[in-house]
């Protein structure tokens, strides 16, 4: 079986959850199931300068992982009009002749690229994983209004308030284009029931979606920290440092705990690439005002276990509807209970009072109170650790995907 993976970036350039899982899945299918193919990651000049003569570049030593340089992407319409770049992709696709094309994101890739590959590989089965809400939300797929409120589902009037400079025609055409492009896929996967519900609530047919959880590599859990005084007061943040992931909420909550005289420690791990100067100024000011907090910067997958060893709790204070953040599975793999915003796919994955704690969204005082409870409630940490279930492994996720690919190919021959 030959499989083409398409993603909006490569984890060596941008280590987001989608990029990490997609590349891990590709390698697991290759190494354990003999699947051949190509992992093609779309990038722009923001990520990598274009090399002369080709839009396809090597990403490292691997010959089956490449970068596709496309720099004219329209983020509103998810459109890629770079016809020259797309034309040079044709010989690569024709030589690969994929049986399955699995699209993990449309950012940078664009609807036109998918249409081109469909023409170049007419016998391939097409799979799309909706790792977030870009197909239904033009506001960066966040389902957040421009003034930061949770959006329970896109409507024409609601979207016009977020995009006053766009006419209703643009919004309707975007919706029709997304339904047309994704309507031609053989399967649409989502990693959580919550995500499926958001698409269905937006008017998409329920039967088009199947829940397919992501998975994480099976690694030995990091040892729990020895707490001589019995206090479980060390909190870790793992992920992109940006406004949506809630790092500001955590720093403000830590500030309030310090002001109240409650000893604790917060460590933030994650890159801050491509963030605005305004956000970084706000982040640095919040960090300076939280004496118990430290920012350590980006980390690698190999470093994660050692970083987990230093914390008792993993905090995910996102201010948007997370779909199925990989960091929850990573925390559970290392047997760390999770404190998360009680909304979206994160709240689906973390059972309040069983393997973690829910906190009110976008509420530093509420988050601080949950962190206080985590520190001061005797026996709570141990009970939550005992309630953690092993997350879906990468091996199991690969088997499920392979079964789906085979079923799709079998349907094609009927």
UniProtKB/TrEMBL annotation:
GO terms for molecular function: glycosyltransferase activity. InterPro entries: Glyco_trans_4-like_N, Glycosyltransferase_grp1. Keywords: Transferase. This is Glycosyltransferase involved in cell wall bisynthesis. Residues 16-217 form the Glycosyltransferase subfamily 4-like N-terminal domain. It holds the Pfam family Glyco_trans_1_4. It comes from the Bacteria. Gene3D superfamilies: Glycogen Phosphorylase B.
């Amino acid at each position: 079986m030959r499989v083409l993976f398409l993603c909006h970036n490569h984890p060596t350039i941008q280590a987001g959850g989608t990029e990490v899982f997609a590349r891990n899945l590709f390698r697991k299918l290759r190494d354990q199931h003999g699947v051949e193919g190509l992992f093609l990651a779309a990038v722009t000049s923001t990520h990598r300068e274009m090399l002369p003569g080709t839009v396809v570049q090597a990403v490292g030593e691997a010959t089956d992982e490449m970068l596709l340089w496309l720099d004219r992407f329209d983020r509103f319409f998810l459109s890629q009009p770079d016809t020259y770049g797309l034309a040079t992709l044709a010989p690569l696709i024709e030589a690969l002749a994929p049986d399955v094309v699995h699209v993990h994101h449309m950012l940078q890739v664009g609807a036109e690229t998918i249409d081109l590959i469909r023409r170049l590989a007419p016998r391939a089965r097409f799979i799309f994983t909706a790792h977030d809400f870009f197909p239904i939300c033009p506001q960066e797929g966040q389902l957040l209004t421009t003034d930061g409120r949770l959006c329970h589902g896109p409507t024409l009037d609601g979207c016009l308030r977020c995009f006053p400079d766009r006419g209703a025609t643009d919004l309707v055409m975007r919706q029709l284009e997304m339904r047309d492009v994704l309507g031609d896929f053989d399967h649409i996967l989502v990693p959580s029931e919550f995500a499926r519900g958001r698409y269905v609530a937006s008017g998409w047919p329920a039967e088009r979606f199947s829940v397919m959880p992501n998975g994480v590599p099976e690694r030995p859990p990091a040892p729990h920290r020895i707490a001589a005084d019995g206090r479980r007061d060390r909190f870790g943040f793992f992920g992109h440092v940006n406004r949506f992931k809630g790092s500001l909420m955590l720093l403000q909550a830590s500030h309030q705990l310090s002001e109240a005289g409650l000893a604790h420690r917060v460590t933030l791990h994650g890159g801050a690439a491509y963030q605005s100067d305004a956000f970084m100024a706000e982040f640095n000011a919040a960090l300076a005002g939280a004496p118990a907090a430290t920012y350590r910067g980006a980390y690698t997958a190999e470093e994660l276990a050692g970083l987990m060893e230093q914390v008792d709790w993993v905090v995910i204070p996102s201010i948007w509807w997370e779909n199925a953040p990989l960091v929850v599975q990573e925390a559970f793999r290392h047997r760390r209970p999770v404190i998360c915003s009680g909304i979206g796919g994160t709240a689906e994955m973390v059972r309040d009072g069983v393997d973690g704690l829910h906190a009110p969204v976008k509420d530093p005082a509420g988050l601080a109170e949950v962190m206080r409870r985590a520190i001061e409630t005797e026996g709570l940490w141990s009970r939550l650790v005992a309630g953690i279930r092993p997350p879906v492994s990468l091996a199991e996720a690969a088997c499920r995907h392979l079964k789906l690919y085979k079923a799709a190919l079998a349907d094609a021959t009927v």
